Amino acid sequence: MRIAVCLSCLPDPETVEVDPLTGAIDAGRTLYVLNPADAAALELALRLRSDDGTVRAVTIGPDEAETVLRDALAVGADAVLRVWEDQRTATRPAATSLLLAAALSTEGLPDLILCGARSLAGGSGKVPALLAERLGWPVVTDVLSFELSDGRARFVRRLARGARSEGEVTLPAVLAVEAGSAPLRYAGLPGLMAAKRAEIPVRHLPDLGLAPMDLAFPSATAEAAMPPYPRPREIFIPDSASAPHERVAQILSAGVAQKAGRIIDGSPEELADAILAFLGEHGLLEEPA
Amino acid sequence: MSANANGRSERFDVIIVGAGPAGSAAALLCARAGLKVLLIERGEYPGAKNVSGAVFYGSAIVDALIPNWWEQAPVERHVCRRDLVLMSPTTAVSLDFRSAAPGYVAPPYNAFTILRPKFDRWFAAQAEAAGAFLLTSTVVDDLLWEGSRVVGVKVRRDEGEVRGDVVIACDGVNSWLARKAGLQRELETHELALGVKEVIGLDEAVIRQRFHLNGEEGMALEYLGAVTEEVHGGAFLYTNKTSLSLGVIAQLSSLVEHKKRPYDLLETFKAHPAVAPLVRGGTLREYSAHLIPEAGWKMIPDLYTDGMMVAGDAAGFCLSTGIYIEGINYAMQSGLAAAEVAIDACRRRDFSRSVLRLYLDALRRRNVLTDFQAYRHAPSFVNGERLQNLYPELAALASEALFRVDGNRKQKLLPLYWRSLRKVGGKPSHVLRDLYQVTRAYLW
Amino acid sequence: MVITTHDEKIRTARFKVDDRPHIVVDGEKCRSCAVQSCVTVCPANLFVPLDDGSVLFNYEQCFECGACYFVCAEEGAIHWTYPRGGYGVTFRES
């Protein structure tokens, strides 16, 4: 089993200090860390590595991002790779996922890719899904834990409000791991010293058969920022037809009611149709021309 | 993994514990001599755990290693103004020094204000560039022994033993290694001072204007008297590029005795009428605290044993005399002295105490032991009750009387000081005794 | 004047908290300690005297200065070491 882990080096949010007047970030006071969710992904990869298996860590970032790869080597990653284009100053999920896909493809695709579910910095959590899309692989997001057996991964996912879901996915796949699901181990001295000395290989765009243009994705630009409008709130009025004690009970419960949901059964196609119909009903889809 | 990349089988000529000024200086010199050097630092980066005022008086020391070092190092301002301020709760009397003599406003500079996390990181990088192997995020817990000889260290990591011919302990004021080697006794609270410090951000133009500085010129102010209330100690205020470093230094035993919280003293200091206008409009950037070995000559440990030497704060090399408050320069000098001896020992392949005792000579050559010996009476004098409280009060009171013009008959100086002395409860016999002390501690 | 509260001060340092405490206080010994000097000297105000005479200690925002260790030398209630390498306080400008 060959596992690849995607790591990112981020400013520690605790150390990002913004000048209240100018809004400028004080770069001199910013420290960088391995994204916590990526650290969990790395730990899970190391735990699941079989005797003949390998764990490879990849990062997209400038020279300074090397530190997260050295951290990975120190705790036992077998190989690392950094990808960067020197003129670049930042990446968006579209470019990051393209670079990751290209890097992993040129180095020989692994059987499983682990990512952190989302970064502390942007936190959109899009990279795992986009990466899977580029590779044509399935993706499972918000993974808390998983086990591997017979080319399949059995996982537990985090859902909203503390709910959990279990499922299975056929490998190869991309799994996006939640922060905190496994604390990263503390490196031993020999590993740390070897990692400090290691040469960190780096690939640039031409090595991956890419040109800067390939990364020029159309991007959204913010034109204005507006404060949120408070939405008119419905005030709960007890049903005047009910008995007084029921009305009192309704008031005391402050109108809290379970949100209605609809669970639909059927084949994947039927389910997809049902979802599209639902979205259409609520005006969330453009009408086909 | 090659055998060489494997920590277990790897051994070093010199293992240096602590990448502060002492450790990095030692590592730099040893690495330049071609030795295989391991420099171990417990912080995430060198300087991450280090706190000083800080004025760095070791410019000439670094210049000898890296010519014109200030052109590439993260220094704040070169010091051309120094104030020694005596304070009562309402009044401040200062001795103001400003010079455009060589070294104060033009290179080679005499002293710089620095921020330790930045400066120490740079200095350790110089050692690394010279070939030292810098290992960060690693705390050393113990020494490795072979009989009565130190043969390496044990770090708090799996398979954490690493062997070296010489260990130089530069692990700071609270040196576990010096204690574990039996070189240092348990320190007493009157030998230690607690420094609490704030870095306060202030606009560059405001700093220049407020402290009457041109360009990159800087100022160092040191305070004695009411700043620490009845607690023995002092305070400082230094100018950085775009911030002020200020803090209070309080003798640990005295804090306990008077039940004073260190950060409360810091607030009192900032609120003093002589200090408040200097920090006005600033914003707090960082608060920090650190212990300072203040007793000088009396707390210097045995400095070497078989296979090991002690340098920097771990050896108590912090000179606190009132006039001089220096540590970083002595740390560097002692690190360099230890390195010279380590290089010599490696050449002879003899790491026993009979060779390492040359460290004492090297320390004298580099004016470390000589300075501490010369000023050996100063620390107890500086921390004495009268110097701490009586004389600043006297200076303030006498000056208040001297400069007050209220139509009354003017007094001549001697009666004026006499009355002031009586008012603050001083006795002439004490003054005479203290004059003798000053003579002994400072004059010759 | 730049007056700051203790909380504001502490917030300016960066702490990477180790999951194992590097300082352990023997609360039993504190009960019989009349001075409780640790409470006075700690620059991070981490020692809190409790009603029952013992002392509550929180290691997470420790500056690792060692003041508590030295003032408690006689009583010996404080077991003191540095945090694991890479953990604990990180100064950026001091």
Polypeptide structure, described:
The complex is a heterotrimer of chains A (289), B (444) and C (94). Chain A has 2 domains: 2-215, Rossmann fold, CATH 3.40.50.620; 232-289, no CATH class. Helices cover 27% and strands 21% of the residues of chain A. Chain A has 7 helices and 11 strands. Chain A has helices at residues 36-48, 66-75, 93-106, 127-135, 189-197, 244-252, 268-281, and strands spanning 2-7, 9-11, 32-34, 54-60, 79-83, 112-116, 139-149, 152-158, 164-170, 173-177, 202-203. In chain A, the strands form 2 sheets. A 9-stranded mixed β-sheet of chain A has the order 9-8-7-10-6-1-4-5-11, sandwiched between helices. In chain A, strand 4, helix 2 (66-75) and strand 5 form a beta-alpha-beta unit. In chain A, helix 2 runs antiparallel to helix 5 (189-197) and helix 3 packs across helix 4. Chain A is globular and about 80 Å long. Chain A starts with a strand and ends in an 8-residue tail after the last helix. With 444 residues, chain B is an alpha+beta fold. Among the domains of chain B are: 3-74 and 115-185 and 301-366, FAD/NAD(P)-binding domain; 380-443, no CATH class. Chain C has one domain: Alpha-Beta Plaits. Chain C has 4 helices and 6 strands; from the N terminus they run H-E-E-H-H-E-E-H-E-E. Chain C has helices at 6-11, 27-31, 37-41, 67-71, and strands at residues 14-16, 23-25, 47-49, 55-57, 78-80, 88-90. A two-stranded antiparallel ribbon of chain C has the order 1-6. In chain C, strands 2-5 form a two-stranded antiparallel ribbon. In chain C, strands 3-4 form a two-stranded antiparallel ribbon. Chain C is globular. The mean pLDDT of chain C is 91. At the A-B interface, helix 5 of A face strand 7 of B.
